[in-house]
Amino acid sequence: MFYAPWCSRCKKLFPVLEELGVKYQNHSTVTVAKIDITANDIQLMYLDRYPFFRLFPAGSQQAVLYKGEHTVRGLSDFLERQIQSRAEDEDKLMSGEQSEVTGGEEVLAKEEEAVPIMKKKLAAQKLPALENVTQLGEPPAQTAAAEEEKATKDEL
């Protein structure tokens, strides 16, 4: 819940949020929080009324607006529907990924049968010429020292 400390309606909802927090305290995917908008830099839209509720699903950039009753039951029903919806979406995603993996493996197997890897020839890749390139060389003093050392070794 986003709230303003001077808002009497917000203060009346603190016990509701406390009870909701106790109900979901052992739930691994739900965190119930009270956020004082005057003490935090909140950059959400619709900050004209307090309190307001948002659900921030894990892994999503979209917040879900809550427009239901400001009761433990109303908030709890909303959370349960969202949890169920997310679980169903994950199940669909997982079953879709499994069929894609299986289908992808079949395609790879067919490609390997059609063109053995050892017979494939890769096209030569030409790299574009670089412009405005500065050639780095050894500093002159180091080059002179290296040449002198080489000449000394050759004499021995």
TrEMBL record:
GO cellular component, one term: endoplasmic reticulum
Domain Thioredoxin: 1-84
Listed SUPFAM superfamilies: Thioredoxin-like (SSF52833)
Region (Disordered): 87-108, 132-156
Biological processes, Gene Ontology terms: protein folding
Bias type Basic and acidic residues, positions: 147-156
PANTHER family for the chain: PROTEIN DISULFIDE ISOMERASE, PROTEIN DISULFIDE-ISOMERASE-LIKE PROTEIN OF THE TESTIS
Record family assignment: Belongs to the protein disulfide isomerase family.
Name of this protein: Protein disulfide-isomerase-like protein of the testis
Lineage start: Eukaryota, Metazoa, Chordata, Craniata, Vertebrata
The encoding gene: LOC109395686
